[in-house]
Structures are given as C-alpha cells and as structure tokens.
Amino acid sequence: EVLSSVVEDVGHAVNRNITGAQILHELLSAPWLRALLKVRAGSAGVNWNRHLSTALLSSHDSVAQSDYGPVLPPLPDELPEDEEAMRIVCLVKNNQPLGATIRRDEETGDIYIARVIHGGLADRSGLLHPGDMLVEVNGNPVGGLEPEQVIQILINSQGTILFKVIPNPAQISSGQTPVYMKAMVDYCPQQDPSIPCPDAGMAFSRGDLLEVVDQSDGQWWQARKLPCTASCAGLIPSASMLKSKQREQWWCQPLHIHTCIRPCEDSSLSSVMLYSTGPVFLSQHVTVQNNCSLLVPAGFRRSFRLWRRTSYRRRRQSCTSCSPNTTLSTPYEEVALYQRPPQENHRLIILVGASGVGVNELRKRLIKLNPSTFQGPVPRVLIVNKSFRNFGEYKGHLYGTSTDAVDDVLKRGRVCIIDAEAHSIQQLRTRKLKPYVIFIKAPSPESLRQTRRDARVITNFAINRAFTDDFMELEDVSRLIEAKYKQFFDTVLVNEDLQDSCIQLCSIIQQAQDEPQWIPVSWTRTEE
Ligand SMILES: Nc1ncnc2c1ncn2[C@@H]1O[C@H](COP(=O)(O)OP(=O)(O)OP(=O)(O)O)[C@@H](O)[C@H]1O
Question: Which of 444, 452, 460, 461 to mutate for ligand 1's pocket (most ligand atoms within 8 Å of CB)?
C-alpha cells in the first residue's frame, strides 16, 4: 500500500521531468520489489512506512545525482551564434498515413511542414510541428525540391523514416479545446480543387456531427466525425471558406432564380402557425401559381391534406433540379450538449414526414396512450379570407395553431407534440421552444404494401380512400424530404409496424426530454 502511494508520487515527479524520477519509478514498479516487500512486511512487524520512505528518498537522491545521459562531445569553439538547432525525428512507417502536409516557400525553395493532422502519426510523435523546416528525409536533402518530389521520397521509404528538421521557433500550441459543429451542407474533398491535400480531407454530409479539433488555420480546419472510431482528424474547409465557396457556386449557376433556394422571408415567430387538425388550410404563398412557391414555409401541415395529395408530383418535378447544396445556408451550426433542467418546459416535439406516412396516426395514438403526459396544441381559426376560397373547402375558414397554444401546453408541464411541414422547421427552431425534430420515414414500398392493407388516405377526390398504388410515390417523397431537410432532424423513425413505431416514438421522446442532446449553442445562451 505504502509502495503504491510512493510509486504514485514518483509518477508525478516523472510528469514534472525531475531528473532520475523515471529510473526510480521503474525500479519501484518492479514486480520483484513488490514481492520482497510483501514477504518482509509479513515477517517483521516493523514500521515500514518510515523506513521505506527514508530508504526511497536516499535512493532517489543517489539516482538523481548520477549522470545517466549520453556523454556528448564538447561543442566546437567556432560555432556561429546564429546556428539553428536541428531536430532529428525518426518515425516508423506503418499502414497509416504520416498525418502531415508540406508546403514550399516559393522564394527560398525551402520545404516546410504546413499542418500536422490531429491524432495522426506525426502528431502522436509530438516531434513535428507546423512551420518546422524540412532539411532532409532519409538522408536526401529536400531544399529546392517540389512537394511532389518530397512525397515520392516518402512513398519510396520503407520502415523507419528519418527527418532532419529545423524547428519552428514560434511553435503554435496545438492544445485547442474542441468545438462541436453540425454540418449544414455536404462536402466532398475529392471534388474540391482548392484543398491542399485531398487525401487528408474528410467528407461529410448535412446533419453530421463534427468535432473540430483545430481552427488555427483560417481556411482549413481539422475535424473528426462523431461518433468516431478514427483517431486521426481530417481537413475540412473553415466556415468562411465554405461560405465563399457557396457564394461562388451561387453566382456561377445559370440564371434560373428558383424560389426553393431563396431564404425564408417571413421568419418572425409570432407569425408562425403550426399544425392544424382543422379541415381547411392555406399558406400565403399558395396564391402564387408557381410550383416552387408551394415549398415556401407557411407552417401548416395537416391542414394541407387535400391540396397536398395532388401536389406531390408537381412538387417533385419542379424541385429535383434544385439541389439542397445550392442553398446559401450557414455551413456549420455550433452545437452543445444540453440536458433539460427538470424545472424548465419540455422541449417541443415536432413530427415531420411525407403525407400519408402516418405522422398524424402516431401523434394521435401517443396522446391517447398517455393524455396526462402528451398533448397537442388546440387548433384555432386563423383567418377568414375569401380570396383563399379556392384552396379551402371549409367555409373559407383557415385553421392553424398559434405558438400561444403551444405555450399553453408547455406551461401545463406537458409534452407538446405537433406535426409540421418540413419546410417550416426552420421557423420553429428557437431558443424558447428548443424543438426536437423526429422524421417519420416511409419503409420500403413492399413493407408499405404489407402494413397498410387496411389504411385509408384522404385525397382531393376521396376522403378515406384505400391506399392503391401510392406506395412508390410515398417512399419517393419521403426520400426527397429526408434529402432536403435531414440537417434539421434529430432522429429518424421508420414507420413500419404501427405498434412498434409507437413504442419507439415514446422512448425517443423520453430521451429527448431527459437525456443530454446536441442543440445549437445559441439556444443555450441566456437572453440579454
Ligand atoms: N405503421 C402503420 N401501419 C399501418 N397503417 C398505418 C401506419 N401508419 C399509418 N397508418 C395508416 O395510414 C393512413 C395514413 O396515416 P396518417 O393519416 O397518419 O398520415 P399522415 O402522415 O398524417 O398524412 P396526411 O398528412 O396526408 O394526413 C391512416 O389510415 C393510418 O391509420
């Protein structure tokens, strides 16, 4: 016991680089010494504590006084004062990449380490740093060579690689605190001509959670995808770099201004109306007889039913040419883990999915199952506007649910569940509501055919008609919504068997309320 605590103390001395501590640590950790002490302690009831401490301290002193370093030859007398220290770095090549990139100073022809990839071989060695000048690789002088030639030397080297480097005097500390970001765009390094080293790049898609470990370079960050198994980070464009790429892409597009990629104009929360169980529905944008304008957010969902069933095809045709990547969105959203304090309102639960996939059914079942916990907001008549009659077949009344109705539910300590159109999620993403978005995904058409034998849908022409050949279309639309909005989804639930889906949904909602979840950092800041 005493020995363990002494070994621990000496271990701290090793960390502080005290001379001789390492040797002492190794001696004390030797199994034979432990065994010997055990025997001695058992045979003699002496006070080992004091004796051992004295013995150890005196042995430390003698070890510390000994000179275990190599005997170096004396320095030559005529050594120039500005002589630069050279570091010799020996790395053993394995099947991992070296984890460093190089650059050439065009004026002097010198080769420098441009960046060291976090967690890579070079980084773990702790001996190569950005800005170090590469003098030799395996005995070959590299000054004046092209980076490709240096890389060729590295490729041809087997086993141990010996670098001679002049260390960068102003070494940048790599100990940065990681920052967590959600990708809001897709990125592929292999298709990016501006990346310094495509092999060191990391591809990501919208919705991926990234741990950004190095932001010291204003243009190229280093990050890992979470949950990650790889220790080595990859290069990703910085936020400003991605934004300028987006702008370039935007201006280079052929001039077909498409409303789908216009930023949302009306984002004030007070004007946002949510799910409605009422039979009539409308968006202010529907009046524009343009296919794509139908995608501009208004916030209603269920109320669109009648109109929506006929608009699938038109919407799909008009918008497939519109890649989600063309949207000028924020490329990364900084996120933080958030655990809802018990005294705070529950997070708003938003269900999203293609019409007919079962969003409404799941929501109803959940509320019925546990009415004291779950509740939907009460729909209200919003507007009475004769100009919208074409779209509303219920005496011109427009139904929707205001944010006040959501507040009412939350203030009662219940979990408020709404279903919303995917395009209205962005308006609902607020600090106050902290919505948790669940995408209800359509299973395969075969599975739909199996599970929806008795299901009914509402269309323009029939209320409660049986599903006929809708399955391919349903799956198609579901895929389209997922592709376009997946960056806003917290969870995806495939609605195959109704009962299973209900159980899964219950547990997802419980986790959303009671377990730590990633949310935008801006939602965690206190209001000013
Ligand atoms: N997993 C399931 N298995 C069998 N039937 C289902 C399943 N999910 C939903 N249904 C049935 O499918 C039909 C359509 O569901 P629902 O009305 O909930 O669709 P929705 O996604 O809300 O679409 P809309 O917005 O057009 O109303 C209903 O008859 C419902 O009972």
Answer: 452
Pair (104, 145) in one structural domain: yes
For ligand 1, the distance from its centroid to the CA atom of residue 356, given in whole angstroms, is 5
Paired tokens of 410: 């939350």
Ligand 1 neighbour 502 (Cβ under 6 A):
no
Whether 229 and 116 map to the same domain: the answer is no
Helix count and strand count (H, E) for the chain? 14, 21
Ligand 1 binding pocket includes 360 (Cβ within 6 Å) = yes
Give domain status of residue 318, yes or no: no
Gyration radius of the chain's alpha carbons: 32
**Does the CB atom of residue 353 touch ligand 1 within 6 A?**
yes
What pLDDT sits at residue 314? 47
The two most distant CA atoms of the chain are separated, in Å, by: 103
Tell me which of 280, 315, 361 to substitute to probe ligand 1's pocket, judged by most ligand atoms within 8 Å of the beta carbon. Answer: 361
Range of the domain at 476: 341-523
**Average pLDDT, 10 consecutive residues per value, the chain (528 residues):** 77 76 78 70 57 64 58 66 73 80 90 88 85 90 90 83 85 74 92 86 93 89 85 88 78 45 32 28 27 31 36 43 50 94 93 91 91 78 39 47 81 91 88 95 92 74 69 91 94 96 96 95 80
Asked whether residue 35 is assigned to any structural domain, the reply reads no
Q: Which of 247, 280, 300 is the last residue of a domain?
A: 247
8 A C-beta contact, residue 206 and residue 186: yes
Q: For 454-515, where are the alpha helices, taking DSSP H only?
A: 471-485, 498-514
Q: What is the pLDDT of residue 245?
A: 80
Q: What is the pLDDT of residue 122?
A: 85
ipTM for the predicted complex: 0.98
